[in-house]
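Internal tracking record. Fields below are filled automatically when a chain is submitted to the structure queue. Please do not edit lines marked as system-generated. If the sequence contains nonstandard residues, flag them in the REMARKS field before resubmitting.
Queue: standard
Priority: normal
Entity type: single polypeptide chain
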Amino acid sequence: MSFSSFEYGCHAGSQVLDGGKPLSERLKNLHQRHAIVKSGSERSMEIKVPTVREPQVDFINLLNRSRGAWGRSRVVIERAIAKRQAEFRRSANEVIDAWE
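SYSTEM-GENERATED OUTPUT FOLLOWS
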């Protein structure tokens, strides 16, 4: 069985990893980008998470293509909303007549 835990309190983390008070204290004092991991019946161990660099790429082209493919203008959305609202405002007789 595997667990992934993020930002647990030290007590919850020590319970998940079966470490008790010593592990609880160790979790309280972890350095940034360090984590305690445990897999199966293996002992828990401390690891250092590598730094993840943010890519320096221009995302505007992708954003504009996505908006063009999936986005709708405000006017189109407002018309769709008004149409739905008009359908709800119809009387029961109008609905029954339209159904036949």
